[in-house]
Amino acid sequence: MTMKMAPGITEATASGVENITWNILGQTYVPKQLSDNSLSWHATFPPGTFVPPHVHPTQDEFVYMLEGTLDFWLDGKELQAGAGALARLPMGIPHGIFNKSGRIVTCLFWVSPTRKLFDLFQKIHNVPDPNEVVRLAALHEVDFLPPPSA
């Protein structure tokens, strides 16, 4: 099935595409736009939450920082992005995202193309078991990396 983007405005409200709000790994994601070519979502990262290191083999990912600061692990390098910065996470490059700031962080994510990410978020919404999230992610073209050796 082909999804084309409809023209228009997505209002700055709590609801997004199909009035969906996801709880993903302790963060709140609100999808704002969906088509075959891209998916965007507003994200709220409470203090101490993170997305473990992973790879999108079929998508480029972007994070535009609205408020606060996130730490990124990008291809083995530690980087930090604050309000107004854009993080570019190319396909195939390992990355992780961490809120170590002690404050709530808000940002806008998008990926291109969409591939299976919307379906993955639907499947892992409110899933409390990290191992199940990792298993489902692998079925949807997101590969989490093993934890570092102690």
Quick gist of this model?
The protein contains two helices and eleven strands, in the order ββββββββββααβ. It has 150 residues and is mostly beta strands. It has a domain at 24-115: Jelly Rolls (Sandwich).
Fold and architecture overview:
The chain has 150 residues and is mainly β. It has a domain at 24-115: Jelly Rolls, CATH 2.60.120.10. It has helices at 117-124, 130-138; strands at residues 22-24, 27-34, 39-45, 50-55, 60-67, 69-74, 77-82, 86-89, 95-98, 105-112, 143-144. The chain has a six-stranded antiparallel β-sheet with strand order 1-2-3-10-5-8, with helices on one face. A five-stranded antiparallel β-sheet has the order 7-6-9-4-11, covered by helices on one side. A hairpin with a 2-residue loop joins strand 1 and strand 2 (27-34).
List the helices and strands and how they pair.
Elements: E1 22-24, E2 27-34, E3 39-45, E4 50-55, E5 60-67, E6 69-74, E7 77-82, E8 86-89, E9 95-98, E10 105-112, H1 117-124, H2 130-138, E11 143-144
Antiparallel strand pairs: 1-2, 2-3, 3-10, 4-9, 4-11, 5-8, 5-10, 6-7, 6-9
